[in-house]
Amino acid sequence: MFSPFDLTSRVAIITGGNGGLGLGMARGLAAAGADIALVGRNREKLATAAQAIADDFGKSSLQIQADLTQETDVTRAVGDIYEHFKRVDILINNAGMNIRKNPHECSLDEFRQVIDGNLTSAFLVAKAVYPLMKSQQAGKVINVGSMASVFGAPFAAAYASAKGGVVQLTKSQALAWAADNIQVNAILPGWFDTDLTRRARVEVPATYDRVITRIPLGRWGDPADIAGTAVWLASSASDYVTGVAIPVDGGYTSQI
């Protein structure tokens, strides 16, 4: 029986898919039937993530090591994925990084690192997959923003700038590529329990207690909590949805 959420035979690229939210989304797409290409810098983490997907879903994942801030690496990575699968249907731009400093303490080099790691990488990978999706006259691009796309923070000027840019990039791509039947949307994760946020709790004291009191659902998210939204946006169930940014945050951004 037809299911609008079935991703069987679809090929999905997940950048930063070797841990945290990226792996949570990769697992969700694998469970829905997609073939997975994991892209990241750390070869050991890529292997561990691929093994987790194989153990749970019986699917092997293509592992591609690349620096997504470098156009030559992006071109090579997307080319290798296409050579292996002969198609690309879904892109999740999840790769990112952060340097937590006040605006006046952040050097130009640090600012550029954060912009490149979160925004430039998303621009480059989407640009590289666009011709492949256009040739198929179908595609799904999911850019991962953040609550920092909506809110500012004194210690996250570079990160908020990058993630705000991700939302505007998403809207521009959605408008430009609608005629090619490519839907482009963004997910804005809230506070999830990942390695990245565990470091934030250390670097910014009292983060956990301050955040938990604002989340209406009363808990931090687990990476599995983001999988359903990713599957929906990657599937034909969302064919009439494009150019939107969807918070997945337990209700955090709904509060005054």
Gist?
With 256 residues, the protein is α/β, with parallel strands linked by helices. It is 45% helix and 14% strand.
Instruction: Using the coordinates shown, work out and report the CATH topology.
Output: Rossmann fold
Bulk shape? globular
Return the domain count: 1
The main sheet orders its strands as: 3-2-1-4-5-6-7
Q: Helix-strand pattern, N to C?
A: EHEHEHEHEHEHHHE
Q: From the alpha-carbon coordinates, what is the Rg to the nearest angstrom?
A: 17 Å
State the total count of DSSP E strands. 7
| Unreliable runs | none
List the helices and strands and how they pair.
Elements: E1 11-15, H1 20-31, E2 35-40, H2 43-57, E3 62-65, H3 71-85, E4 90-93, H4 108-136, E5 139-144, H5 157-177, E6 182-189, H6 195-203, H7 207-212, H8 227-234, E7 245-248
Parallel strand pairs: 1-2, 1-4, 2-3, 4-5, 5-6, 6-7
Provide key terms for this protein:
256 residues; alpha/beta; 7 strands; Rossmann fold; 7-stranded parallel beta sheet; 45% helix
Commentary on this structure:
The chain has about 260 residues and is an alpha/beta fold. It has a single domain (about 10-245), classed as 3-Layer(aba) Sandwich (Rossmann fold). The protein has helices spanning about 20-30, 45-55, 70-85, 110-135, 155-175, 195-205, 205-210, 225-235; strands spanning about 10-15, 35-40, 60-65, 90-95, 140-145, 180-190, 245-250. The chain has a 7-stranded parallel β-sheet, sandwiched between helices. Strand 4 (about 90-95), helix 4 and strand 5 (about 140-145) form a beta-alpha-beta unit. Helix 1 (about 20-30) packs across helix 8 (about 225-235), helix 3 packs parallel to helix 4 (about 110-135) and helix 4 packs parallel to helix 5. About 50% of the residues are buried.
